[in-house]
Design brief:
The chain has 563 residues and is mostly beta strands. It folds into 4 domains: 5-174, no CATH class; 182-319, Immunoglobulin-like (Sandwich), CATH 2.60.40; 324-474, Immunoglobulin-like; 481-560, no CATH class. The longest helix has 10 residues, at 66-75. The protein is globular and about 85 Å long.
Length: 563
């Protein structure tokens, strides 16, 4: 039961001219509007229907209109028809074997029957109400409990999801290789100082909004309106987020954290571009003191050649007017900023810019805090006790400055402080670069080495930063490749098509093995194996069960979801 590009392209689209009236019945229910949610197919917003709230089986729940759901299915080649007399929602798809379709919870009972290619697959209770989008005299249409939407998507092997924050989002593989859209660098505005770069973070006073905007363009450079943009964020703590019109945005959790460089993103806010192709998000912090950094990166929910289309990242932070704001501020020693050691092969991999921003007081501008002398205080510890890692104050290229060697304490204890003095620039920001190098033995990096630095800043004329920031560098050897993968059919072609697929029995276990090798093709034990292939398993309803390294072979077991 596999959805292919040819099947999607050849199936009929039949619902474009059907009115919601056709989905209604003769009476209305107690459903009440809860708010509008977008329906998005391959990154394009089809509509923004109202979610309704009502009672189903004695429980209060959300309801979504079948009419608009059917429009979305039509866009991916599934014919959907509604019979208001028999209350039958008939789905037709030549690529699906109805005998294999199993909706979670079994067929069940209810006033509405769902069929796939004529076979009954589900029953549930629907309710009817006037469509709020059409006004008080608008047509009556039929609503299904939202609980069943994700169950139906999974049963039909559709790559999509529904949530009360992001609405209905469906993506077919048609969008993977054909997208020619682009995202502009994020424009940051509303901050008191800084540009949003790592060495010039955008800093605003607590309670003030910072605005993040990006423009979506097509292959010819023309703006793309009505395009969904996801703003990935590193934190949502104490944040109020709105769109350009002032509507409050709710965040949604990513299915798994996304790590880009040394930054980790856990959540996202979804915005639709305006007529000029611009997507805007306004963020306000209600924290009572200096915040941890907010990393933001924009992403289109479609892929180009197997890669998501993303912008570059920007950094923002909030603080109290008239204080020294240290960025990035990771004030919990047990939850430091996690970095990777630099090495002889990559001498700036662990390089990080520490920025102390003198946030102007109320009524002052950035020029009033330019040219101020600032002292950075750095101490370091060998946390793991492995080898002799080095921590240094450097220039932006990683070259150690005179007097920049930080004495690393042993046995997890911080050594004596090293002081670095500099002055704030025209934006009131003083910059210090810090780097740490992995310890080696006979030229080989020592796996498991960990070093930590504690950083604070202070104005020479008085005024300390709000707390210390903790940075931690580590090194984990990674394989260059995984060879001898078995079964071989689990490997996709470079175009990420459906040509290579392993098809085990539904409900059975499948073990995938391979040898972790270095760049020279030599196997090695105790190499960490990451989430290789996780996205491909998601697209075909495979779920990762566990992954481990067995001697020199990486072994991952996955189980086919019963659909």
């Amino acid at each position: 039961m596999k959805r292919t590009l040819s099947g999607i392209a050849s199936a009929a689209i039949v619902l474009g001219a059907i009115s919601p009236m056709a989905f209604g019945a003769t009476s209305t229910s107690g459903l009440t509007p809860a708010g509008q949610l977008p329906i998005v197919v391959n990154g394009q917003v089809l509509s923004n229907p109202y979610e309704m709230v009502g009672i189903d089986s004695g429980n209060k729940t959300g309801f979504f209109p079948i009419y608009y759901f059917s429009q979305a299915l039509a866009k991916i080649g599934i014919q959907a028809t509604w019979n208001g007399v028999t209350h039958t929602w008939a789905l037709t798809d030549s690529n699906v074997n109805a005998a294999n379709v199993q909706v979670a919870g079994g067929i069940g009972t209810g006033n509405t029957t769902v069929t796939v290619n004529g076979t009954v697959v589900k029953k549930f209770n629907t309710q009817v109400a006037r469509d709020p989008a059409a006004g008080p005299k608008g047509p009556i249409t039929t609503y299904l409990p939202i609980y069943y939407i994700n169950n139906i998507l999974k049963a039909l092997n559709i790559n999509g999801s529904f949530s009360g924050q992001a609405g209905l989002n469906i993506q077919t593989q048609t969008a993977v290789n054909t997208s020619t859209e682009a995202l502009s660098p994020i424009q940051v505005s509303g901050q008191t100082v800084g540009t949003g770069a790592d060495n010039a973070p955008a800093v605003a006073a607590v309670g003030n909004a910072i605005t993040f905007s990006t423009t979506v363009t097509d292959a010819n450079g023309n703006p793309v309106p009505n395009q969904v943009v996801q703003f990935l964020v590193s934190t949502t703590d104490n944040l109020t987020v709105t769109d350009a019109s002032g509507n409050t945005l709710n965040y949604a959790k990513l299915s798994a954290p996304i790590v880009i460089g040394n930054k980790t993103y856990d959540d996202y806010y979804q915005v639709t571009t305006n007529s000029q192709g611009v997507a805007t998000m306004k963020v306000t912090s209600s924290a009572s003191t200096t915040t941890e950094p907010l990393y933001v990166i924009a992403q289109l929910p479609i892929q180009s050649n197997g890669q998501y289309i993303r912008s570059s990242a920007v950094t923002a932070q909030w603080g109290l007017p008239g204080t020294l704001v240290l960025a990035p501020l990771w004030g919990n020693q047990t939850n430091p900023d996690n970095l990777t050691f630099s090495s002889s092969q990559d001498p700036t991999k662990g390089l990080i810019a520490m920025v102390a921003t003198m946030l102007p007081g109320n009524g002052q501008n950035a020029s009033s805090v330019a040219g101020q002398a600032v002292k950075f205080y750095v101490s370091a510890a060998n946390v793991a006790g492995i080898g002799a890692p080095t921590v240094n104050i450097t220039d932006s290229q990683g070259n150690v400055l005179s007097g920049g060697v930080v004495q690393v304490g042993a046995n997890g204890q911080f050594g004596p402080q090293t002081i670095y003095t500099t002055t704030t620039n025209s934006q009131g920001q003083a910059i210090m670069y810090l780097n740490a190098n992995v310890p080696t033995q006979n030229g080989t990096p020592l796996t498991g080495a960990v070093a930590m630095a504690q950083v604070s800043a202070q104005l020479v004329n008085g005024g300390s930063s709000q707390g210390n920031s903790y940075l931690q560098w580590s090194f984990q050897d990674q394989p260059a490749k995984i060879a001898n993968v078995s079964p071989a059919n689990v490997l996709n072609s470079p175009s990420l098509t459906d040509q290579n697929r392993e098809n085990p029995t539904s409900g059975s276990n499948l073990t995938i093995t391979g040898t972790a090798e270095d760049a020279a093709g030599q196997p090695g034990a105790e190499r960490a194996v990451g989430h290789c292939g996780r996205a491909d398993w998601q697209r075909t309803n495979w779920r990762r069960r566990y992954g481990q390294l067995c001697g020199e072979r990486a072994e991952v077991q996955v189980q086919r979801l019963v659909v």
